[in-house]
Amino acid sequence: MDLTRLLAIVAITANGIATGIMLSTVIGIVPMMLALPYGRYVQTVQFLRPRFDPVMPITNGCALVLDIALAVTGGSAAVSAAFAVAAALLGSVMTVSITKNVPINRFIMSLDSECQPDEWARIDPRATWRTWNLIRTTLALAAFLTNVIAAVQLV
Questions:
Q1: Which of 11, 66, 133, 153 has the fewest CB atoms within 10 Å, measured from its CB?
Q2: What is the pLDDT of residues 24-37, one digit of tens each?
Q3: What long-range pairs does 133-136 form, CB within 8 A, spacing at least 24?
Q4: How far apart, in whole angstroms, are the C-alpha atoms of residue 57 and residue 21?
Q5: Which pLDDT score, from 0 to 100, does residue 1 have?
Q6: How many domains does the structure of the chain reveal?
Q7: Is there a contact between 8 and 150 (Cβ–Cβ < 8 Å)?
Q8: Where do the H-state alpha helices sit in the chain?
Q9: What does pTM read for this prediction?
Q10: Per-residue pLDDT of the chain (155 residues; tens, 9 = 90+)
Q11: Number of Cβ atoms within 10 Å of the Cβ of 54
Q12: Which pLDDT score is estimated for 155?
């Protein structure tokens, strides 16, 4: 197996892991979070965030770097373009994460689960977080499919 194919496999794997995790949040975690009362919601985010945060930037970042490398060295123009599109989609995933979801997560991490703010009904970020998470999950899934299409063209 040549290096290009190996890099494509690693890019797909990293992208697939991150996409799977994000898809699991859309399917199960977000609906659960929306149903939780304030205190349990805050406790759940404070439990999950330190577990998800190391994995997501590493897997998305790895896939992004590999897609950029594959776009430069991938071979035919069509294959290079496909990896470039996947890289742009992953860059968008990371941008949404950093600018939208992470600030909300940090806000929740700063809350006391036993002391609900008086204005909670007005500042509850769950619906906003859900929307941005769905957007980045859709982008990640599009990147994954694009990576698979590009890798198949390498064969």
A1: 153
A2: 999 999 999 999 99
A3: 133/22, 133/25, 133/26, 133/30, 133/101, 134/26, 135/96, 136/22, 136/92, 136/93, 136/96, 136/97, 136/100, 136/101
A4: 12
A5: 58
A6: 1
A7: yes
A8: 3-24, 30-35, 38-73, 77-96, 102-109, 120-123, 126-154
A9: 0.94
A10: 599 999 999 999 999 999 999 999 999 999 999 999 999 999 999 999 999 988 999 999 999 999 999 999 978 999 999 999 999 999 999 999 999 999 999 999 999 999 999 999 999 999 999 999 999 999 999 999 999 999 999 87
A11: 9
A12: 74
Torsion 135-141-145-151 (CA) sign:
positive
Range of the domain at 80: 3-154
Tokens of 33: 């979070």
Contact 12, 74 (CB under 8 A): no
- The CA distance from 57 to 51, in Å, is 12
CB 22 within 8 A of CB 140: yes
Residue 13 half-sphere exposure toward CB, CA atoms < 13 A = 6
Distance CA 155, CA 140 (A): 23
Residue 24 corresponds to which amino acid? S
d(CA 71, CA 56): 22
